[in-house]
Amino acid sequence: MTAKATVIPMPPQILLPVEGEEALFPVRRVYCVGRNYAAHAVEMGHDPAREKPFFFQKNPDNLLPPGLGMPYPPLTEDLHHEVEAVVALRAGGADIPLEEALNCVYGYAVGIDFTRRDLQAEAKQEGKPWAAAKAFEGSAPISAIVPAARIGHPEHGAIWLKVNDRKKQQGDMNQMIWKVPEIIAELSKLFVLAPGDVIMTGTPSGVGPVQRGDHVDCGIDGIATLSVTIV
Length: 231
Ligand code: MN
Prior knowledge:
Blueprint: E1 15-16, E2 25-26, E3 30-33, H1 38-43, E4 55-58, E5 63-64, E6 79-81, E7 83-89, E8 105-112, E9 115-116, H2 117-126, H3 131-134, E10 140-141, E11 146-147, H4 148-151, E12 158-163, E13 166-172, H5 180-190, E14 198-200, E15 208-209, E16 215-220, E17 224-229
Parallel strand pairs: 3-14, 5-10
Antiparallel strand pairs: 1-2, 3-4, 6-9, 6-15, 7-8, 7-14, 8-11, 12-13, 12-16, 16-17
The chain binds manganese (II) ion.
């Protein structure tokens, strides 16, 4: 049987580098968790009480592999950085039990959930979706994925971000309101998860604006670091 012809060229499969491997990680979907660190919920004007986690999405081709400049997006004057731990899945399913959730994880990375904060504020005010604020070109710079087979499943580790060498965000993965297994279990109640899904797990406090030409460094101790220039 020959492969089906396509009426337009086949769009590229998004592939991410994996630390220490020649083989790449193919991305299926990108989920993001909102307000998952109490101090960040407070700085955004919300009560950090442990409400149900909520989710939004970016597109697989919004992921910006390491080494590329991040294009400053149009129609914003308030582009904000949000450094986040990223989870890459090797398995999925629906209604994944909490105690099986970590078996679904292939590895971890550090990423930035760049946000057009002015468009997000407008959307919140008008009860509109966040897509324009979150899911734009190059909006999610991400490090190589580090296999859990090498580093295990980190529950703590400093998570930090600097702009032009000035520390802006500083937290610890252990401050996450919803931990990685809980995020996977909750997400799998809403969606059928699958290999290739990537989850951005929320940002600690200290989010703020970047400008063209800024150099952003971030990392999670024990996982990875990432550098990106805004172009
Ligand atoms: Mn975020």
